[in-house]
Prior knowledge:
By secondary structure, the chain is mainly α. The chain has one domain (48-259): Penicillin binding protein transpeptidase fold, CATH 1.10.3810. It has 9 helices and no strands. The protein is globular and about 70 Å long. Mean pLDDT is 85; it is low at 128-134. Peptidoglycan polymerase that catalyzes glycan chain elongation from lipid-linked precursors.
Amino acid sequence: MEPPGQDGEGRIQEPRATTDRDGNPGRVRPSPTAAPRPGTRRRRALRALVLVPVMTVALVLALALVYRAVTPPSTLMLGRWLSGQGATREAVPLEAIAPALVQGVIASEDQRFCAHGGVDWGALRSVVSDEDGPSRGASTVTMQTAKNVFLWPGRSYLRKALEIPLALALDAVWGKRRTMEVYLNVAEWGEGIFGAEAAARHWFGKPARDLSRGEAALLVAALPNPIARNPARPSRALKALAGRIQVRMARLGGLAECMR
Length: 260
């Protein structure tokens, strides 16, 4: 049997030209390329659906490990830098921040900070969302830190859902002291003012380690609306809120055990 493309005498045969129905010579048609099978496309789509979240989680965990030693910027700070607005922040260790400010944050923002694993499940179940989106009341300090460092500002159910696994990861990787340290170094305390050190110097003209209990309570009271609230010249409402925070601080007693 002769090999394909050869005649009986071993000579290579020329490809035969095709003709149309009238007998006119036509062009040699190339063999069509096989189209991807539907199963192949599905496998590629599934692979992408798996790889994207896995790579995202890996990136976040890698950053979390780096941020154990390096104080990160917040996404708000990055946004201001990229837009040319600038931001003021001087990162300091937790030891350089008045214990009253730490105590005030726990008293006002997350009284079960030392007890939960990053997410207060009881608070999440009990919160009733209003028409503007999820309530701030369900956010632990760890969840707020995750939002400030890794996510975008504003309220949305998607962002709230993403805060939960991030907070669990941060609590496991950083622990309580590092989480509070990062929180107090990235929290916004005015237009372009970030972190406790910059806030203390801007509003009270002193380093964060020298804040009084009253000044610490005013800074904490400003956290939910840092652009509109002025800790140095507080309104009657802000003074009243700071007073209630001081009462909570007194009820909690000294510095929380997990912060010592």
